């Protein structure tokens, strides 16, 4: 399960709340926007450019522009994702 909610989209920045179910494994993603993810709840494994890292509540993960990444949910989680510039594809969907 993936639930996304755009919390703010102002100027060149966007904040998105993402809720993911335990066991979820995302497809490899890549986009031109920079991304900063904050773990509000749960535990996840981020793989960024082939490097894996376990994140817990309060941890952050920076994802540079156009770098391949994916997430694997270890424990049901809520992630706050900040993007710059705005991801227009998330506003459309």
TrEMBL record:
Name used for this protein in its record: Cupin
Domain of life: Bacteria
InterPro entries: Bacilysin_H2HPP_isomerase, Cupin_2, KdgF, RmlC-like_jellyroll, RmlC_Cupin_sf
Domain annotation Cupin type-2: ranges: 18-82
